[in-house]
Write a structure and sequence with these properties.
Blueprint (H helix, E strand, L loop, with lengths): L2 E2 L2 H5 L16 E5 L7 H13 L3 E4 L3 H10 L12 E4 L10 H12 L4 E3 L14 E3 L3 H8 L3 H6 L1 H12 L2 E4 L4 E4 L5 E4 L11 H15 L1 H6 L4 H20 L6 H17 L1
Parallel strand pairs: 1-9, 2-3, 2-4, 4-5, 5-6, 6-7
Antiparallel strand pairs: 7-8, 8-9
Amino acid sequence: MGADFTPERARDWIAVPGPDDDKYSRGVVGFATGSARYPGAAVLGVEAALHTGVGMVRYLGAGRPTRLVLQRRPEAVTSVGRVQAWVVGSGQDPDALDEYSASVRDRALADAVPTVIDAGALGLVDRAEGTRVLVPHAGELARMLGRDRDEVLADAPGAALEAASRWQAVVLLKGHTSYVADPDGGLLDVNCAPPWTATAGAGDALAGVLGALLATHHLELDADPGAAAPVAATAAVLHGLAAERASRGGPFTVLQLCAELPGVIRDLLRG
């Protein structure tokens, strides 16, 4: 088992804007996510990032998810420009992706900034030029490692560490207890999420939270790429605590989870 990553430790990895900050210095996160088949993943990731706190969200995708993102969040920017982090692959099937979305995904992977690699982009991890942060669930990690899902579940920490070493990436293996492994053999455990979090779209929101945190910590990551591991663990803490608040002991929607993120961050900062 790894070290327990508590909400108290997560507090240190929440970037608070100062009076001289602007939308660019606060961090810009780009999204190459969603598709005509799964447009909701784009909406949920952007929603989560904006509720986590970031200077700007750039969303680049096909027509339908772009329209839905702008309907939900008109502050999202849909033009090409510089970003400090990317979220790639959520809501995408690599075998059924339109040409434009595939080209955006490939450009994002080629950008040498920290990149959250999710779902349909996990098989393309070797193309990523920046700091790699993989966010698979057990089934996805099993496919990557060529194992059965039950094998991964039987030794989730070991599977996360193996993947981190193989792909020289930070691996956030999602679950009731999430494990964050780094390429040097470090392991962090996060146990904040209620079982009700096992719902469609929750992973898309987690990727958005993580993308926002990577963007807001881009200076620290430039100086020390190893900071990606505690940043990833912080994302899991925020996501899990927001899920707990949204649940209140029962089922909840992912938009409800996103709505709880600002309060979770506020209360952590207050101590």
